[in-house]
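Researcher: Structure prediction, please.
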Amino acid sequence: MTSLPFRMPEPIELALAGQTWSAVDVGMSKADVFRFDGGRYLKTVRRAENDATFGNLDDERTRLEWLGGKVPVPTVVAFARDDSRDYLVLSEVVGR
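Model: Predicted structure follows.
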């Protein structure tokens, strides 16, 4: 497996350990998105690129946790932040 182009904090590495990944290049956000073979997704964004319109991944985590059980949304598996990036690991949502 090729390494991701950045080092991840330990909680994120643990959530994705042993899984292979592929980049997701569809979408309009500034986040880098990766799909892992265990049905998990990693979203990461440079802290300097957080944006006033869409907020940051910590805001997204809060909204998804609030929506959970109300509508079909991904489950938040892990969240972490370091000096340069935010990281959010999400479950896959079944549907079409």
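Model: Residues 29 and 54 are 8 Å apart (CA to CA).
Researcher: Thanks, that helps.
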